[in-house]
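Form 7-S
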Amino acid sequence: TSLSDYVIPDVIVRKEHSHWRVLPNRAAMPSARLNQAYAALSQCAGQGAHSALSHELQEARWLLHHIEQRYATIERVAQAIVGRQRRFFEYGEIAIRPLMLRDIALELNVHESTVSRASANKYMLTPRGIVAFRHFFSRQLATESGGSCSSIAVRTRIRELIESENPQMPMSDVALAHSLATSGIVVARRTVSKYRAQLNLPAAEM
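Output:
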C-alpha cells in the first residue's frame, strides 16, 4: 500500500449524549502562523523596507484568514450534512436520504459552488469508517407512498437482495425491480441493471 492510499479526514464525527457532533481534525489543517519577529521588524524598518515588509505582512495575514475561513466553511458543510443524514450514522447506507448540493447551499445561505468546493475531496471520520462528503449527496427516487429514497439506499438494497438470493436461482433485474416494488420503491428494470453494474455485480445469467 502506498502513502497515496491513505486519507486524512478533515472532520471527525462522533456521538455525544445521543447527539452527533462534528469536530475539526486539527491534524488535517495546514500549520501556518505569522513569524512575530518579522512582524515586529516591519515596525522598526526604514520607510522603503517598512512598506515592503508591511505588504508581505498583509499578504500573510490575508492567507491565514483565508485558510481559517475555508476550514470554517468545511466544518459548516460537514455539520449540515450530518444534520441531514443522521439516520446514516444510526443505520448505515440503507438510511441515506436524497440530498443535493443546493439543499446544503440554501441551508447555509451560500452559493452552490461554495458547497461544491468545500465538499470536493473532503472526508469525515465516522464510527462507520472514513466517508467522503460527496458520498452523502444522492439523487431522489420516488416511492409508492409519495415519499422518496436515495439512489444510494436503493443500490444498498439491491446488493442485499443479491447477496441473500439462492445461487441456484439468481434474481433477474425484473425480479429485483419487482422485489423493490413490494417495498414501495419504484425503480425501472433498466435502472436496476445500471445499479447492478455500478456495484460490479454480474447479471443473473452470468
